[in-house]
Structures
1.
Amino acid sequence: MTPHEPPIDRRGTSSEKWEKYAGRDILPLWVADMDLPTAPFVLNAVRKRLEHPILGYTAPPNRMVEAFTAWLGERYGWRVDEDWLVWIPGVVTGFNVAARAAAIEGDDLVVPAPVYGPILKVPANVGLRGVISPLVLNGGRWEMDLDDLAAKVSPATAAVLFCNPQNPTGRVYDRDELEALAELVLRNKTIVISDEIHCPIVLDPTKQHVPIAGLDRSIEARSISLFAPTKAFNFPGLNAAVAVIPDPCLREAYESVGTGLISTYTPLAFAALTAAFEDDTDWLDEQNAFLAGNARRLETAVAGIDGIRTTRVEGTYLAWLDVSSLGLADAVAAFEDHGLGLHAGEEFGGPGFLRFNFGCPRSILAQAIDRLVEAAGVLGKL
Ligand SMILES: Cc1ncc(COP(=O)(O)O)c(C=O)c1O
């Protein structure tokens, strides 16, 4: 039996993803939210917390803090101190506050892109100059252009805003790529703000996620790393994340910038985080195997479509489709007309591209692939 069939009906839950196309025959494959169930042990933990009749203000539970530090240590070999952790209501909040803290020390923010849209907006949000370093396609994989980065990262750089595993290209950066970036950060005495929200979702068995701050003690001291299990265990709606800030001065700057602006955490988010970090079942491996099956099906299908190209997804449940050769003025609208709701490449700094969220049951993916084939056939003839 194929898992996750029949698909779960999300109507009536005010799902942002589904409401966008309510009443229209358009498959919503845009925002990074999966149509797969939240991990059952996460749901159980939330239910259990609801058995208590009071949902009061809640401090970070020791059990969660211990589970998270053990999680980083066991999965990634990075030993962190409990004092380095700042619990936050989301990774987007985390990198905006981090950039404001970094802004005290510099003029510009260097951003390898295309990248998750809200990261691109950070320089304007915090009043710094945004300096884009375009990723390059090399032998079928997206890479940072280290020469370009070396020319752009300078002592005036407040921070490098970084995303790994990379949204939207699906890259899981190798250790040597991370070492090269870390070396640039250290040489210029700047910091790296690293969004690692997708780190549990590695689909290529030859790949291993490496937290950049865990490379060694020197880059650790110049880092703010942001984690959340909300993508992998599928509870993005609970707004929960954690910043790891080893350097005490940087942590103090971060905390003072956030004072009075960041709401307190919810007990339900803490229950969910604890359950996710404590998970010692095969659930995540099985889900990653399922997602890898989806990735390979999509890649194989796209390889047979004239006018669309893509690259191998190593991590995340997002594929980055190059539709530039179709020459569409409005690619999103053109694919919506064929029943596909994809995410505009422009939002990630990649015009001519569309992002495809394949975190869905196989039957939805199969339907989406049929529509993609049909759409490319029609649009390619215009
Ligand atoms: C790379 C990346 N960072 C952050 C987020 C959002 O994180 P949060 O909901 O914790 O703010 C997303 C969601 O799509 C994402 O893909």
2.
Amino acid sequence: MTRIDVPSETLLVEMGNDGLNILETTMQMSDMDESAQVQCDICSKPLGKMKDVKHIESPESITIAVWNGFKPEKMLKATENMLKEEGEENPAEIMEIVLDSWKSIVDKSETPWALCEECYESIQIYINKGGS
Ligand SMILES: [Zn+2]
């Protein structure tokens, strides 16, 4: 059994006869009071307090970026490294599930996303890509 922490969700997966099964997903509730420390919703980089966050994107913009091919590269890389460190033999298969699960988080998301400078810039390219 492997536990995978993605920024806003924890997955519990298990290798079954017909591939990987997701046993459990746990959404982590984030506390959004004024003094709470905010993390980038894509790569989990600390951004300081809510009032200091420079880049906020609507969930619709994130969805558009994903349609246009955006992937949370830094988060995926960190997860892949973590799986390798844990001695996971087939990280590629788990990575697909992590990405699918992340996309479903994007689909369900109804709250604005706080982004760090880097993620903001990389996602802008995808948000503007589909335009007329
Ligand atoms: Zn970021």
